[in-house]
């Protein structure tokens, strides 16, 4: 293997050099073939369209029958040139010589050529002006230039600059025709060009002069001769003089402009044709010379590879034996010892780096191999030290978060008790309503602090001594979200949840319910249903939002099934992280699925070991408060008075659990009006009625908290 690397490199370099050299030769031949096949036909097509452009501009200006006939004759010439170009470029030989990029440019050129008919229709109908006509007729030459660029030679080849120079002169000839056409229309009407036309005319003239000058500087004397003769000819000077007069705002004779332009265009075309023939004749000898260089390079490369093989074999055989021993020692350390150490660090165990990963002993007799062993050992020790330090840092951060959250939990619990006392003493309805809202906010703050404890690896700390009814767990969870009034919990029979899991499951359901309310319309319901199944108890939570894509839903389900270790740097979807950690802790299955309402449904399967003894449930009993036609209000441990639909009142249960409601003995039953989702009552209460309502709520809350005892407090 040690020998294979340098030998493979040498062979690769030799092959690369040979390929590049041969490739340059093939490129020369291909370019010569394409130029000889495409060049003449493309030149005829370009010249014909340039001539048609000028005649179209003249016809747009005069709209005379004579100019119309002249234009029609030129269109026939252009169509014949287009047919010859298509026939010359569609042969198998030419198409096979094109690269993928060249074919794409060729297809683009043919689309532009075929679109000439649409431009002709605009000319016939007078729906195009000189500026638009100049843009439309420039599309074919521009596409032809892009095609030439794809078949040009590499910059390293000697003919590259010559090909580029000739292409620039071809572009200058096209700019000449656009310049002539733009001025022809104005001269035919015997009026000066508009400001826009004059600006375009100035830009075309400047670009044409620049391209001509740049091209002459790059061409060799043999190829530069015809164009130098053109540049110093009286004809070129006469045209330039008329051009300057038009730029200065003067006028020239339309006939002189036409004659000088036609003669100059013909001169350009003859020079380009001569240069193209000369360039094609030079391509074949260059290709032959390149092939010769490729053969010499191939022979020399083979000799160098053979010599390198002999030297490498003698030197590498000794290194191979020594490196094999080093590889075995390093593999044992990397594949056996280090993974075991990292696993222990993840479990929080203490690790002695020196004892667990001893220093590698120097192997072999080569100094270089010794140095490699020392360097590897240094890297290994640094990496291990960094991993230990990171584990300690992560544990310290988690401990700090956990301590801060515990302190916040204690303070918030004390705040809730203070709020209980203040609610008992308050008589003003507005003050009591504010206290209820503060109670609700405090309960939500306690849930967030509890979530931080869970994320840092701790337990919630709240326990109940007896089993809790499943509906009470879900109502307690719903009371811990901001938009609790939109949550609808359907009856679930007498199923209960063991007390030591009630707090964590309440937190788990609260995270899911809050996510459902946040990502669904504010006027829609979030429904919760539950029932006993063969493997435990299933709770289904559905919203009516926009839902999730199949990919996002699958990713969340995978994360819930196998929650990763919490990373403080990742703060997105912390609720799902908390749900995943709690679900893994209690072996609860949480799965997202599409909802029939269009949103998202969450299915939570509680295992049988989390279920308590079922409670018998009496028929629903309505607590009627002392005010007429009022919406029934259920006291909630977590917050303000919450209007509850008539089909969701709490049943009276036997045994332990969360607060119970009983019928007031001194209040006769009254018909209850179905509440709206917003919780707005049918009429506004008087101060006396509101005070009686709040007093009744306080009594229910105090009784519920007294039955809960200290089991619901932080430990």
UniProtKB/TrEMBL annotation:
Top-rank taxon: Bacteria
Region (Disordered): 644-715
Catalytic activity: ATP + protein L-histidine = ADP + protein N-phospho-L-histidine
Residue stretches of biased makeup (Basic and acidic residues): 671-691, 704-715
Domain called Histidine kinase/HSP90-like ATPase: residue spans: 500-610
Transmembrane regions listed in the UniProt entry: 291-311
UniProt keyword annotations, A-Z: Kinase, Membrane, Phosphoprotein, Transferase, Transmembrane, Transmembrane helix
InterPro entries reported for this sequence: HATPase_C_sf, HATPase_dom, Nitrate/nitrite_sensing, TCS_sensor_his_kinase
E.C. number(s) listed in UniProt: 2.7.13.3
Record-given protein name: histidine kinase
């Amino acid at each position: 293997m040690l020998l294979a690397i340098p030998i493979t490199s040498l062979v690769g370099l030799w092959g690369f050099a040979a390929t590049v050299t041969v490739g340059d030769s093939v490129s020369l031949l291909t370019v010569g073939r394409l130029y000889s096949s495409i060049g003449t036909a493309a030149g005829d097509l370009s010249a014909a369209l340039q001539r048609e452009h000028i005649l179209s501009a003249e016809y747009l200006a005069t709209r005379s029958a004579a100019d119309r006939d002249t234009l029609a004759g030129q269109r026939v010439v252009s169509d014949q040139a287009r047919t010859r170009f298509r026939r010359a470029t569609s042969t198998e030989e030419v198409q096979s010589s094109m690269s993928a990029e060249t074919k794409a440019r060729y297809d683009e050129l043919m689309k532009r050529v075929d679109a000439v008919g649409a431009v002709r229709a605009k000319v016939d109908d007078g729906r195009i002006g000189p500026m638009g006509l100049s843009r439309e007729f420039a599309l074919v030459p521009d596409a032809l230039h892009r095609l030439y660029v794809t078949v040009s030679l590499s910059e390293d080849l000697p003919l590259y600059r010559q090909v580029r120079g000739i292409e620039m002169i071809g572009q200058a000839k096209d700019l000449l025709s656009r310049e002539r056409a733009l001025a022809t229309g104005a001269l035919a009407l015997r009026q000066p060009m508009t400001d826009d036309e004059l600006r375009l005319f100035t830009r075309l003239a400047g670009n044409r002069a620049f391209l001509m000058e740049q091209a002459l500087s790059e061409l060799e004397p043999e190829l530069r001769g015809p164009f130098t003769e053109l540049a110093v000819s009286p004809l070129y000077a006469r045209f330039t003089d008329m051009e300057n007069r038009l730029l200065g705002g003067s006028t020239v004779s339309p006939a002189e402009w036409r004659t000088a332009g036609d003669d100059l265009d013909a001169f350009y075309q003859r020079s380009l044709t001569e240069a193209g023939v000369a360039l094609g004749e030079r391509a074949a000898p260059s290709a032959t010379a390149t092939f010769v260089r490729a053969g010499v390079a191939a022979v020399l490369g083979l000799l160098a590879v053979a010599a390198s093989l002999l030297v490498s074999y003698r030197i590498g055989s000794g290194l191979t034996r020594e490196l094999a021993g080093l590889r075995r020692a390093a593999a044992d350390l990397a594949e056996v010892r280090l993974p075991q150490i990292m696993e222990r660090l993840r479990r929080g165990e203490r690790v002695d780096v020196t004892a667990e990963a001893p220093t590698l002993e120097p192997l072999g007799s080569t100094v270089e191999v010794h140095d490699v062993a020392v360097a590897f050992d240094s890297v290994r020790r640094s990496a291990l030290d960094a991993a230990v330090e990171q584990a300690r840092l992560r544990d310290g951060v988690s401990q700090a978060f956990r301590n801060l959250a515990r302190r916040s939990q204690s303070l918030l619990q004390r705040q809730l008790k203070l709020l209980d006392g203040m609610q008992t003493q308050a008589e003003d309805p507005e003050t009591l309503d504010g206290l209820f809202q503060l109670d609700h906010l405090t309960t939500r703050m306690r849930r967030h602090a509890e979530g931080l404890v869970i994320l840092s690896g701790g337990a919630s700390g709240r326990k109940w001594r007896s089993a809790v009814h499943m509906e009470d767990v879900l109502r307690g969870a719903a009371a811990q979200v901001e938009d609790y009034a939109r949550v609808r919990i359907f009856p679930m029979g007498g199923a209960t949840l063991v007390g030591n899991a009630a707090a964590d499951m309440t937190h788990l359901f609260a995270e899911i319910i809050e996510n459902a309310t946040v990502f669904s319309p504010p006027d829609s319901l979030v429904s919760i249903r539950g029932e006993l199944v063969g493997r435990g108890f299933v709770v289904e939570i559905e919203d009516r939002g926009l839902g999730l894509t199949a990919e996002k839903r699958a990713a969340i389900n995978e994360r819930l099934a196998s929650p990763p270790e919490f990373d403080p740097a990742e703060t997105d979807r912390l609720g799902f992280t908390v749900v995943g950690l709690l679900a893994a802790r209690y072996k609860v299955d949480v799965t997202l699925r599409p909802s029939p309402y269009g949103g998202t449904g969450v299915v939570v399967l509680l295992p049988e070991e989390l279920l308590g003894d079922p409670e018998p449930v009496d028929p629903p009993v309505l607590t009627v408060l002392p005010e007429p036609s009022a919406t029934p209000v259920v006291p909630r441990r977590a917050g303000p008075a919450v209007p509850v639909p008539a089909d969701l009142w709490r049943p009276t249960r036997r045994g332990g659990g969360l607060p119970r409601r009983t019928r007031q003995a001194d209040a006769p039953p009254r018909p209850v009006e179905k509440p709206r989702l917003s919780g707005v009552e049918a009429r506004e209460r008087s101060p006396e009625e509101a005070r009686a309502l709040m007093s009744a709520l306080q009594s229910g809350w105090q009784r519920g908290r007294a039955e809960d005892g200290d089991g619901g407090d932080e430990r």
